[in-house]
Amino acid sequence: MIKLDLDKARRETHRWMILQCLQCSRPIGAGEALIISALQDSVPVTQQELRRELDYLEARNLVELSGRKSLQWHAKLSRHGVDLVEYTIDCDPGIARPEKYW
């Protein structure tokens, strides 16, 4: 049971950090290599884990993906993704967005 909670926390943290990385790369977006390198120092992630979380974020209409048939995917924030990162909309469960403190 503890293992499942740690895995869930890891996934949710990955999602938030991916969104933050894409916020910094606006309006162009970022490729997988850049996102992985941004996450490696704090929460190591594999390409498979990154793609799974990008799929999740795309299903929630937070990111737009391109290059699925190429060797490297490319992602950028959607309008809803920008709003979520900028705290202008509520965050549903599944993303470890910290509480707004300001």
Describe this entry's structure for a reader.
- The protein has a single domain (2-85), classed as Arc Repressor Mutant, subunit A (Orthogonal Bundle), CATH 1.10.10.
- 51% of the residues lie in helices and 10% in strands.
- The chain contains four helices and three strands.
- Helix 1 (2-24) packs across helix 3.
- The protein is globular and about 40 Å long.
Summarize this structure as a short list of keywords or feature phrases:
Arc Repressor Mutant, subunit A; 3 strands; 10% strand; 102 residues; globular; mainly alpha
In brief:
This protein has four helices and three strands.
Write the layout of secondary structure elements.
Elements (H helix, E strand, L loop, with lengths): L1 H23 L5 E2 H9 L6 H13 L3 E4 L7 E4 L1 H7 L17
Helix pairs in contact: 1-3
Query: Roughly what percent helix?
Result: 40-55%
Q: And the CATH topology? A: Arc Repressor Mutant, subunit A
Q: What's the helix-strand series?
A: HEHHEEH
Query: Helix- and strand-based class?
Result: mainly alpha
Poorly predicted segments = none
Provide the CATH superfamily: Winged helix-like DNA-binding domain superfamily/Winged helix DNA-binding domain
| Overall pLDDT metric | 92
**Measured distance between first and last alpha carbons:** 35 Å
Proportion of β residues?
A: 5-15%
| Largest sheet entry | 3 strands, antiparallel
Number of H- or I-type helical stretches: 4
| CATH architecture annotation name | Orthogonal Bundle
